[in-house]
């Protein structure tokens, strides 16, 4: 199984995917055709064109899955699948509508590369429950792709001591999630990503690193380059108050 899961697709002062382009090309290896899943945004053509503009100059041909007569069949024939960011509720609903949940699972298990960014990274988890997004649509279930046995919170933000915001911090929201569910959550800060190859999982990207949340434990800071393969073996229990 080959996964590259980005917290974000655009870094400040850089073009779309530029900050992670070398890592994307590295995990793709000799793969030069990619199926893009644009359902997290409303304008599928424009979104696909944006991805193509970033990848095709580097020799990677991009095809929007929405242009296929049978999206699930297109995924099952793909060498690589990139699920882009946007609204994760809208994305998950579309994945279920077009039969892509089982198609992606099967194809990735067979060796296709899975690239995810933001909402696409959320989709690699067992469930949608640690997204930051507003539920603008209602998917039939919160069950996602389950390519990992733990949860991710992309765009993880640390609380600012100077903020006047009076609502919950991101950490508090994740701790509330853990009050109801016994499963590890990885908060991915901007500019970071997870890379999985088989049973090996590593944190990459900037020095911002990530934070691991576990039920009943203090959050643990994780630095870039850290081997996180042990997270692939941890049990997960939902609705365990």
Put the structure in a nutshell.
This protein has helices at 21-28, 44-55, 71-76, 88-97, 100-109, 119-123, 170-180; strands at 2-6, 33-37, 61-64, 80-83, 113-117, 151-153, 185-188, 192-197, 200-205, 210-213, 220-222. It is α/β, with parallel strands linked by helices. The strands form two sheets. It has a seven-stranded mixed beta sheet with strand order 3-2-4-5-1-8-9. A four-stranded mixed beta sheet has the order 6-7-10-11.
Write the layout of secondary structure elements.
Layout: E1 2-6, H1 21-28, E2 33-37, H2 44-55, E3 61-64, H3 71-76, E4 80-83, H4 88-97, H5 100-109, E5 113-117, H6 119-123, E6 151-153, H7 170-180, E7 185-188, E8 192-197, E9 200-205, E10 210-213, E11 220-222
Parallel strand pairs: 1-5, 2-3, 2-4, 4-5, 6-7
Antiparallel strand pairs: 1-8, 7-10, 8-9, 10-11
Overall shape: it is globular
Q: What is the N-to-C order of secondary-structure elements (H for helix, E for strand)?
A: EHEHEHEHHEHEHEEEEE
Main beta sheet strand tally, sense and closure: 7 strands, mixed
Discrete helix count: 7
State the strand order across the main sheet.
3-2-4-5-1-8-9
Oligomer: single chain
N- to C-terminal separation?
A: 32 Å
- The average pLDDT score comes to 96
Please state the CA-atom Rg, rounded to the nearest Å: 17 Å
Low-confidence stretches: none
Number of strands: 11
Strand content bin: 15-25%
Structural class: alpha/beta
Helix content percent band: 25-40%
